[in-house]
Design brief:
alpha+beta, Phosphorylase Kinase, domain 1, D-amino Acid Aminotransferase, Chain A, domain 1, 2 domains, six-stranded antiparallel β-sheet, four-stranded antiparallel β-sheet, 31% helix, binds adenosine-5'-diphosphate, binds magnesium ion
Length: 298
């Protein structure tokens, strides 16, 4: 059985951040303990009920991709046993599959998004302007159409409750400088291309995905946070893909679709999600874990 955890509680450790999904503790000046809870957010609002096991699945999916792509881009994971860092008396079983020890990095203040297909806010911006993040695209593209080549479409990282906003590459250069901006763009596209090819062999299209990066004291760049999870990516079953529609997906679209049927203004607090939608969403995460990482849950 998966464990269920809406909020972590690790007395004695310094909690420095409670994000939409992760609780982040400082272990030292250069190490973090990051716990993925079972919180579910949609439209940037954390919903009241957990998806049991979600944090475990997210962590395992991320750990899989971090390991697979370490030869391309270094990542934040440190090989430190959890038992060494959890406070004495902690229920190890509750945390072992959902927590990681990571390098404590300085976040690059941008959401590094790679898109191979035109969907979501990319499709919206393209319809309005014919371009996306300052990149002019060919005319006449349809919803969900594959782009001529994957593109880097950064967005600003919004505070809890606000929505991220697509920005141009030049805007990223203005904030972090051209050297770091170039490294982030190249790393984003490199991981995306590798992962998209990997997933394609398993019948899954990675339509788009978001990475976060950070730098260490020497300015070295690492990919951090999570990687290629259903929370950070749009995964489409290739056999159901069609241009011109929004394809069914492995990601939160399922919950979003439910929420769209509700009379809700997309401000906190969000509506309680019914049990059948919770169970179906958990099954989607498990399916992504199995099809991509080859990890089967009991
Ligand atoms: N290695 C790291 N060093 C510093 N910060 C990190 C690292 N990995 C993840 N983070 C940060 O920890 C937080 C994780 O919480 P999460 O719930 O994912 O937040 P959010 O609500 O911003 O998505 C994010 O703010 C992320 O930028
Ligand atoms: Mg996050």
């Amino acid at each position: 059985m998966p464990t269920s955890l809406l909020q972590s509680n690790l007395p004695g450790l310094e909690l420095i951040h409670r994000g939409k999904v992760r609780d982040v503790y400082a272990l030292s000046n250069d190490r973090l303990l990051i716990v993925a809870t079972d919180r579910l957010s949609a439209f940037d609002v954390v919903l009241p009920n957990p998806i049991p096991g979600k944090g475990e699945m997210l962590t395992q999916i991320s750990n899989f991709w971090f390991a697979q792509t370490a030869h391309l881009v270094p990542n934040h994971l440190l090989d430190v046993p959890l038992a060494e860092v959890l406070p004495a008396g902690t229920d190890l079983a509750l945390y072992e599959k959902r927590a990681v020890v990571a390098r404590r990095l300085k976040p690059v203040p941008v959401e590094a998004i790679a898109r191979g297909y035109l969907i979501g806010s990319g499709w919206k911006d393209y319809q309005a302007t014919g371009s996306l993040c300052g990149i002019t695209l060919p005319a006449g593209l349809q919803q969900a159409q594959q782009l001529p080549a994957p593109i880097f479409t950064p967005s600003t990282k919004a505070a809890v409750g606000d929505h991220d906003e697509n920005v141009s590459y030049d805007a990223v250069v203005a904030v972090v400088g051209s050297e770091l901006a170039g490294k982030v763009r190249d790393a984003t596209l490199e991981i995306y291309r590798w992962a998209a090819a990997y997933a394609a062999e398993r019948g899954i299209i990675i339509a788009d995905t978001k990475f976060e990066f950070g730098t260490d004291a020497d300015g070295k760049l690492y990919v951090m946070d999570e990687m290629l999870t259903p929370d950070s990516s749009r995964f489409w079953p290739a056999d159901q893909y069609r241009v011109g529609i929004s394809p069914p997906s492995y990601d939160k679209q399922f919950v979003r679709d439910y929420l769209e049927t509700q009379d809700w203004n997309k401000q906190a607090p969000g509506p309680v999600i019914p049990d059948n939608v919770i169970a179906a969403t958990a099954a989607k995460y498990a399916e992504a874990l199995q099809r991509l990482a080859g990890i089967k849950l009991d």
